[in-house]
Write a structure and sequence with these properties.
The chain contains 13 helices and no strands. By secondary structure, it is mainly alpha-helical. The two termini are about 10 Å apart.
Length: about 325
C-alpha cells in the first residue's frame, strides 16, 4: 500500500478510536447512574435517617442534575482528573495509580512468558502437522483452555500451597511490594498464563499451517529454498498478524479483566480496587476505572490493527 493509503488507514483508525473513547465515557456515566443503591445511603449507616441521607447527598453534590455532574466529570478527564472518592475523599487517580502497579507487574510477567511459549508451541505443532507432537500439543492446550481460571487457581493453591507448602497461597501481608516477594507471584502468573498460551499457540499453528500450504511457500520449496527459511521467513510473518490481535486482546484482559485472579490471590491490583468500590457504592472510583479500562481497550486494539496492517498490508485495503 502507498504512503498516502497508509496515512489514510491510520487517520481512519485514529478517528474511530476517538469516537469509541467518547462513547465509552458517555456509556460509563449512563450505566453507573443506573446502578442500584446510593453512596449516601451506604454512608448513612444501617438505619439511615432521611435527613442525614439528604445532607450527605447535598455535601457530595449528588442532588445536582445528572447532566451537570456529567459535564463536570467529563471536563476533568483529559487532565487526568477522575473525580474524588465518595467514601474516602481521596482522588480517584490515586486509587488507579496504586492499583496499576501490581496489575501491570502481573501482566508484564505473564506476557514475558506468553510470547515465547505461545509462538514456540504454535510453530512446533505446525512443523509436525498431523504427527504425534501436533496431536499432543493440541490436546493439552485444549484441555487446559477448558479449565476456568478460578478452578485452576484453587487447584494450584491446594496442591502447591496447602499440600506441598512450596508457595504462599495468597499475597496477604505483602502489600503492593510484590517484587520483593516473587514466590507470591508464581501461582497467579501460572493461572493468568494458562488460557492465553493455549489460544495463542493454536492460533499461530492454524496460521502457520495455512501459510505453509499457500502457493508462495509451495513455489519456494520447488526453487530449493531451505525449510527453515520457508518456515520462519515466509510462513511465520503471515501467521503473526492474527496472533498480534490476539495478544492485544490478551493484554487488554490482563490489565482490565483479572478481577477473579486478583480476588483469589488477594493481590491489591485494579481488579481488587474495582471490587471494593462496587461494594462501597463508590461511583466515582467505578467510573474512573471503567473509563481507564475502556480507553486501554481502544488503544490496544488500535495498536493491534496498525501492527497487523503492517505485517499484512492487504488486510488494510478492505478496512
Amino acid at each position: 500500500m502507498t504512503t498516502s493509503g497508509l496515512r489514510s488507514f491510520v487517520a481512519r483508525r485514529l478517528i474511530l478510536g476517538a469516537v469509541q473513547t467518547a462513547a465509552v465515557v458517555l456509556l460509563v456515566f449512563a450505566l453507573t447512574e443506573s446502578l442500584p443503591g446510593d453512596a449516601a445511603v451506604a454512608l448513612a449507616g444501617d438505619q439511615p435517617d432521611p435527613a442525614r441521607i439528604a445532607a450527605i447527598r447535598e455535601s457530595m453534590h449528588l442532588d445536582r442534575p445528572a447532566y451537570e455532574r456529567f459535564a463536570d466529570w467529563a471536563s476533568g478527564l483529559p487532565h487526568g482528573d477522575f473525580g474524588t472518592s465518595l467514601t474516602s475523599g481521596r482522588p480517584v487517580s490515586r486509587y488507579i495509580t496504586d492499583g496499576f502497579g501490581p496489575t501491570l507487574l502481573l501482566a508484564s510477567l505473564t506476557l514475558t512468558l506468553l510470547i515465547p511459549l505461545g509462538l514456540g508451541l504454535g510453530v512446533l505443532a505446525a512443523r509436525h502437522e498431523g504427527r504425534l507432537v501436533d496431536r499432543l500439543v493440541s490436546s493439552v492446550t485444549l484441555a487446559v483452555y477448558a479449565v476456568p481460571e478460578f478452578a485452576l487457581g484453587v487447584l494450584l493453591v491446594t496442591v502447591f500451597a496447602l499440600k506441598l507448602a512450596w508457595l504462599p497461597p495468597t499475597a496477604v501481608g505483602y502489600g503492593t511490594d510484590l517484587t520483593g516477594h516473587p514466590a507470591a507471584l508464581v501461582l497467579p502468573v501460572l493461572v493468568l498464563l494458562s488460557r492465553p498460551v493455549c489460544s495463542l499457540s493454536r492460533l499461530v499453528r492454524a496460521g502457520m499451517v495455512d501459510a505453509l500450504a499457500a502457493p508462495y511457500t509451495v513455489h519456494a520449496r520447488r526453487y530449493g529454498v531451505p525449510g527453515a527459511r520457508v518456515h520462519y521467513t515466509h510462513a511465520l510473518p503471515n501467521a503473526l498478524a492474527p496472533a498480534v490481535q490476539q495478544l492485544a486482546r490478551t493484554v487488554d484482559w490482563l490489565l482490565c479483566g483479572v478481577i477473579v485472579v486478583e480476588a483469589l490471590f488477594v493481590i491489591p491490583g485494579l481488579g481488587t480496587v474495582l471490587l471494593n468500590a462496587v461494594a462501597e457504592r463508590d461511583v466515582p472510583v467505578v467510573q474512573g476505572l471503567a473509563v481507564v479500562f475502556g480507553a486501554l481497550t481502544v488503544v490496544l486494539n488500535l495498536g493491534a490493527d496498525l501492527v497487523a496492517h503492517r505485517l499484512t498490508p492487504r488486510a488494510g485495503v478492505a478496512a
